[in-house]
Amino acid sequence: MEVIHIHHPHRIRQTDFSPMVMALGFFDGVHLGHQEVIKTAVTIAKKRGVKSAVMTFDPHPSVVLRGNVKHVEYITPIKEKERLIAELQVDYLFIVHFTSEFANLLPQEFVDQYIIGLNVIHVVAGFDYTYGKMGKGTMETLPFHSRNKFDFTVVPKLSFGHEKISSTLIRKALKEGQVHKLVDFLGRYYTTSGVVVHGDKRGRTIGFPTANTSIDESYFVPPVGVYTVRFYVNGNWHEGVCNVGHKPTFKAEQNHKPSIEVHIFQFDQDIYGQEVIIEWHQPIRSEMKFSSIEELVQQIEKDKQIAQDYFLLRNN
């Protein structure tokens, strides 16, 4: 997959690309609904014998359109989004740098410059996709704005149970720590990437050494608590239990940012400085303050057993 970054106003000519089928959306999470849109575009492109493409935007529009929003946590930061879209066998990924100038394009201007102007012959988008200034362009207005230069496919709502699968629904589950629900929305377990850093090394003194992990700040991290996780490092997956928290048993004051520490089962390697992935499987409990180290150790043993039982059941 070729990744093409576009800054507005772009200088791409229609003849720079062969005809394409393009999927449009922000695609944060690349959840099952997003995958349906992208897979539809890939299928149509193959049937027509042309290239498939996805157009997304970076940063999140709220950073540009809302003055009080300085930072957004993503379900899939841009690099993760690239990786997941590439797995869907897309030929081109267009990443448009979202600015206020770009946001002010009228719907017709957006279509002229970013669809017709890129030699797109078929558009695929979700039923609720909007484009142009203030989102005034919709899938109902697209035929008018197309100038008969392309046709399009509208992908209907994809639901799980009675709820529409959406980035909003996934964020809600994440905020509540319900990481086990995300498989039904994403089609995969939720993951975050980071680097193993030096911590206070207190875990090893009580028999539970941990990998203190600094997660990329672009990610949406589950709330404080204890979770069953898998941990990817040096090309291998390992099972473990993760604590997201402020260590109230040891510290009277909370840090601004909770620590993320993973106790990896049957593991004894020096992995400081290594890039790692945490795959979040299920919540175990909320964070607790214990009256003694002994009480804490007993609870960690219980947490570990819960996680091991989970993986034993899952792997059989």
UniProtKB/TrEMBL annotation:
Keywords: ATP-binding, FAD, Flavoprotein, FMN, Kinase, Multifunctional enzyme, Nucleotide-binding, Nucleotidyltransferase, Transferase. Pathway: Cofactor biosynthesis; FAD biosynthesis; FAD from FMN: step 1/1; Cofactor biosynthesis; FMN biosynthesis; FMN from riboflavin (ATP route): step 1/1. One of its GO terms (molecular function) is FMN adenylyltransferase activity. It is an enzyme of class 2 (transferase). It catalyses: riboflavin + ATP = FMN + ADP + H(+); FMN + ATP + H(+) = FAD + diphosphate. Its EC number is 2.7.1.26, 2.7.7.2. SMART domains: Flavokinase. The keyword Iron does not apply. Belongs to the ribF family. This is Riboflavin biosynthesis protein. It comes from Anoxybacillus andreesenii.
